[in-house]
Amino acid sequence: MKKLVVILFATLLVACDLELGSSFDPTTRTLYVDHYREACSGTATDLCFRIRKSEEDAFALTTLPMTGFDSLEWGKRYTIQVEAQRSDSGKDSAYTLESIDSTEIMDPASNDFVLTFNMSSGILLDNSSDNSGSSWIIAADKNFTCTGTDCTFLTKAYTDSETIQLNISAESNQLTLLGIKCQSSENTFSSECEGVNDKSWDVAHFQSDCGLIIPSWCLIYKESTDASTEWNLLDLDITDFTALWGQQYDIDVQTTIKAGDIASAKFIEQNSIDDKTNESFKFVLQTSGTALEKSSNDVIKYLTIEFDCARNNQCSDIDNAIDDAIDSDERIIVLQAFVETSAEIPVIIIEDLICNETVGDFKTECADTNDDVYWTKK
Q: pTM of this prediction?
């Protein structure tokens, strides 16, 4: 009886071992390949593919060996069949291209991307024949050219062994440099270009249009730890924070920075609040679409906020500016105002119409001549 039990147990072990072995044999699977590649790591001199295994997943960098992928072009997304080698634990360990199921050409105008390079690694080198820094090569493979200050920034990053982030588009396997997004030393990269940081901000007592295609309100902020910093528009909400018109705030926030831009901000705590009612400010409105409504019952309305335009006889001037936009080009106006009552529904009094310019002339004729006019295109 004991011998029978031993034989049965041994048979089960062999069967299990056979099942495990077969489950980790090479297998064919579908992969989706993105339209550009990235540095394999911060110190790498090679580029790696971005892939996903399902259309619902986000593309992610893979450092696995990829055989037969050299024919895949920048600027195109691919759906492919691969043979996946697997490790002893059952995870994919390498891919070999078997066939291409489909190809999608990505519009370079709306599918640009950011590449990050540690210049000390040698992954990005000056490829100009006269060492002018006008042509560069990535991973000894992909070339692009630059002009003006972009070349200057690239050369500085190379000379100083900085980390640099490039805004690039790809079309027909060719790369075009759109601009330098950010560059810094290794020590400051997380605070200036890519990372999560705690900051102290002053938030102004008024808002202004963000200057984007779709009219929207922006908070105006600056870093309170540095008196020399300028006020800037913030085209995103601060999570868990609501600012009232007429009140200026000193708050601590946690920011997430991506490619030198603030991707998110979360309120941590409020340090102080300063009543700024009855203090004048200037703010920007767009006249396009239906965001700015002509005066009715002595008020104008922009998005959800109403402004008293009658007290200082400004209603007709603003209505005329709206008519100008209807009759000719889209226009941008600057109003001077003050908050009389600070509340969830504030009382805001228009004092004067400062500027009324076309979009093309607004920067030179208005934003550049008024230091207290905050505009993303300034």
A: 0.78
